[in-house]
Design a protein that fits this description.
heterodimer, A: mainly alpha, MetI-like fold, B: Rossmann fold, 2 domains, four-stranded antiparallel sheet, 11 helices, globular
């Protein structure tokens, strides 16, 4: 009777004080020391000093002076290139979604037909995530030529990594009860999946796709740096021609576009995923009228036994948004000259161009390869530390429950939102233009990206802390600063540690491509090898990048597991 | 079903020497023999973990026995192909404790999924079902008293309402057999009575053969014609409900325990603990 043991066990657990998890402390300490040592080494490796830092800032000041006043006579061209960027992101994301849906069903524990299929599907998803979009685009442009096509293919393939992973998780988190029930009615396997799993995962899948669209818009803005279409090419050409006044106008067009689309997609996500649209969330006249209208429509539909669902607000919104996306996609496909019809031919080229990377040659550029990888790693660590140093005060300033002055919060949140609108590589290309080639401009560009992203995460983490301990501390007569240090910070710390690790992961990935715009690291060698069509070395570099990214992912997973 | 038109003496459902051992080693069914004629209203009683749900799931092939033969309407479910299994399931309505509705879908859509066995190919959304079937689904919702909720999402309903939608979904199958596994265990007493009454009413009207698992003996005695008690995967009681007194039925839960399991007599409250422990589990 195993049941008889249940009660005493719980009693024991409740009665005894919780055991301290001693064994984790030395490991955590080792990780912290490792992080500090790695950062110190990195700082040294890329010759970062406070002097270079401030020298870089003054170079940036000079660049800003050169950029003003902006000349907007390239506006039509910038707009055309920006629109192309949007279409590329849209098509690339769509391709990724289309590829991800079947892949996710094969990779989800609860729908995969066979353990072997499961392992292969998981492997494919992990693999696509490990090679950065820009690297893929650079490789594909060898066989597919210059233009948006290789860029779209790269976006489509790389995004499968994230979209496929999140779709798989969505499928795995569905309830089993409806599936068993519908299967019991005599429905077939696919009928059951469509009737029970799809409705459960659709909201989160739409959310994932929209989120990825945001990311891909940023990615496709820089694909032009390797000749893969979009606004990046225009920006790079203008910077190369030292035409800073026009470059800044092209940058501002893409910047405004990205910010606008992010605002729209955030709202869309909220309204599509939001549950129970037919219940009023706000007590204003409009939403009450909407609910009343829905009620009338439903009643009319029932009383007339209407056999199609009534057009309630929720349905109009969903169908409308869907149709809008479809028509945008059609426009995109017609605007961008996608050689879909001859896809088989290009598919052949694609396979061949990947095939030519084999066998990889690690020996030809061995010294540069090692140097590049070390530099990439060093940039990742340095940018994470610098970004963190800037992010902490910014994050505190943007936390609504810490800073009580509304104007300060609005200002800091606004600044963060604005800076996030610029893709890191565009910042990097500007910095390279100001300071010249090398790891320092690349590091600083990553630093800015890290700082804004981390500041938001820190702000959110601080806003999530519980109020009670703060009240307790402030009731003892502590100052606001004391209260912050002893009641807020300890609560938010575990979250911050894990966010920092995540950021390190992201930065190490990003720094593999910085070199493509001259920002230091392995990317520089990659672009050089592609230019001279040294495909064996390209293969070696891609494998090295893959291994680095994979190692980081494993390390990140391990450390996060230790922390939590 | 044509092959089921064999004479009434033939059992509609029969289990012969059915045993089930799960991969984790649990012996859920232990050599069960049971034969159920057409039109019977049978109630399966027993503690949680006694094998009731496992037995039910063997009848429509959700589980396959480790040994023994399950025969339903002339089909050997225990060894049937997927196609045969679908054919059998079409004729068996199954009502679950956790309702098994898709929360985000409307009630009408949920009821329509009951028709999937009659259709070829996957369907998604109300519009993908033939109008004839939609109209039928409306009728069934009307029958369970929820036609006003047809275009409401299933997760906006109360537990009792959800179970009624699940019954409407089963009716959509036009089944000859209705299985209900703890259909009211998640409901308050008032909804429980409502749901059981509804289940009984439609079963009698449609002349269905019904098997309901219940752990409340009073409910079981109230309407079943035959009571079968399970304990540790074995049939320990099989009686006509009219001649059975409540005390006799309670043996399934208490006295029978002691006679079968010598360990239990040393721990008088052991069965109580088991019950509590299992009820806490999700």
């Amino acid at each position: 009777m195993s049941g008889a043991h249940v009660e005493p066990l719980t009693k024991n657990r409740a009665g005894r004080p919780r055991q301290p998890k001693n064994w984790r402390n030395p490991t955590l300490l080792a990780i912290t020391i490792g992080f500090v040592v790695a950062t110190a080494w990195s700082w040294n490796f890329i010759d970062m000093t406070l002097l270079t830092l401030f020298g870089g800032l003054s170079d940036l000041g000079n660049l800003l002076v050169y950029m003003f006043p902006p000349i907007f006579d390239n506006f039509p061209e910038a707009l055309r290139a920006t629109i192309e960027t949007i279409w590329m992101a849209l098509i690339g994301t769509t391709i990724a979604v289309v590829l991800s849906v079947p892949l996710a069903f094969l990779a989800a524990r609860n729908t995969s037909p066979h353990p072997l299929v499961f392992a292969v599907a998981r492997g494919v998803i992990t693999l696509t995530r490990a090679v950065p979009t820009l690297v893929l685009a650079a490789v594909f442009s060898i066989s597919l030529g210059i233009g948006p096509f290789p860029g779209i293919v790269a976006l489509g393939l790389h995004s499968v990594g994230m979209i496929g992973k999140l779709f798989t998780e969505a499928i795995e988190s569905t309830e089993f009860a409806p599936r068993e029930a519908v299967l019991s009615t005599g429905a077939g396997k696919w009928q059951t999946i469509l009737a029970t799993i799809i409705p459960q995962i659709i909201p989160s899948c739409i959310g994932t796709a929209l989120y990825r669209l945001d990311i891909n818009l940023r990615e496709s803005a820089v694909l032009g740096f390797v000749g893969a279409g979009g606004v990046g090419f225009l920006i790079q050409t203008e910077l190369r021609g030292l035409d800073y006044q026009r470059a800044i106008s092209a940058v501002s067009v893409i910047f405004i576009t990205i910010t606008l689309i992010e605002l729209i997609s955030t709202r869309l996500r909220a309204s599509i995923i939001g549950d129970h649209l037919s219940t009023p969330t706000k007590q204003n006249a409009r939403s009450l009228a909407r609910v009343a209208r829905d009620q009338r429509l439903i009643e009319a539909a029932i009383s007339t036994r209407r056999l199609t669902p009534p057009w309630i607000y929720e349905r109009i919104l969903r169908v409308g948004t869907g149709l809008m996306f479809l028509s945008l996609l059609v426009v995109a496909l017609f605007t961008i000259d996608m050689p879909i019809i001859s896809a088989y031919k290009y598919g052949d080229d694609l396979v061949r161009s990947i095939g030519r990377l084999y066998p990889p040659d690690f020996t030809f550029a061995r010294a540069e390869l090692i140097q590049g990888m070390l530099e990439t790693t060093a940039i990742g660590f340095t940018a994470t530390l610098l970004g963190l140093v800037i992010a902490i005060p910014l994050g505190i300033l943007s936390a609504r429950n810490i800073i009580l002055r509304r104007s300060v919060i609005l200002l800091s949140r606004g600044v963060l939102l604005l800076i996030r609108g610029l893709p890191e590589l565009i910042v990097a290309v500007l910095f390279v233009a100001a300071m010249g080639l090398g790891p320092v401009p690349g590091t600083l560009a990553l630093t800015i990206g890290t700082a804004t992203f981390m500041a938001k995460l820190i702000g959110d983490a601080l806003e999530e802390v519980q109020e009670a301990p703060r009240e307790g501390v402030s009731a003892t007569g502590a100052t606001r600063v004391q209260e912050f240090i002893s009641a807020v910070l300890p609560q938010a710390l575990p979250n911050l540690v894990s966010q920092t690790l995540y950021m390190l992961d992201v930065n190490l990935r990003s720094s593999t491509v910085l070199g493509i715009v001259g920002g230091g690291g392995i990317g520089f060698l990659l672009l050089g090898s592609i230019r001279v069509l040294d495909e064996a070395t390209v293969g070696a570099i891609i494998i090295t990048i893959f291994l680095l990214v994979y190692a980081i992912e494993l390390l990140g997973t391990f450390v996060r597991w230790m922390v939590e | 079903m044509q092959d089921s038109s064999t004479s009434g003496a033939d059992p509609l459902i029969s289990l012969t020497g059915v045993s089930k051992r799960f991969p984790n080693g649990t012996l859920a069914l232990d050599n069960v023999d049971l034969s159920i004629p057409r039109g019977q209203l049978l109630s399966l009683i027993g503690l949680s973990g006694s094998g009731k749900s496992t037995l039910m799931r063997h009848l429509n092939g959700l589980h396959r026995p480790t040994s023994g033969v399950v025969n339903v309407m002339g089909v050997e479910v225990s060894s049937a192909s997927n196609r045969q299994l679908r054919g059998v399931r079409k004729n068996i309505g199954f009502v679950f404790q956790q309702f098994g509705l898709v929360g985000r879908a409307t009630c009408l859509e949920n009821v329509l999924t009951g028709a999937l066995g009659r259709l070829n190919g996957p369907r998604y959304g109300v519009w993908s079902y033939p109008k004839q079937l939609r109209s039928e689904a409306f009728d069934h919702l009307e029958r369970v008293g929820l036609v006003n909720q047809a275009y409401q999402r299933a997760d906006t309903l109360s537990g009792g309402q959800m179970q009624r939608v699940a019954i409407a979904r089963s009716l959509m199958q036009q089944p000859q057999i209705m299985l209900a596994d703890e259909p009211v265990a998640s409901l308050d007493p008032e909804s429980s009575a409502q749901v059981l009454d509804l289940l009984l009413k439609v079963a009698v009207e449609e002349q269905m053969t019904v098997i309901v698992t219940l752990h409340q003996v009073e409910l079981a005695l109230g309407w079943a014609t035959r009571i079968v008690g399970l304990r540790d995967g074995r049939v320990v009681l099989d009686r006509d409900a009219t001649t059975l007194k409540q005390e006799d039925a309670m043996e399934v839960y208490q006295r029978v325990d002691k006679s079968l399991d010598p360990d239990v007599s040393r721990q008088p409250d052991a069965s109580g603990v088991t019950q509590r422990a299992v009820q806490v589990a999700p």
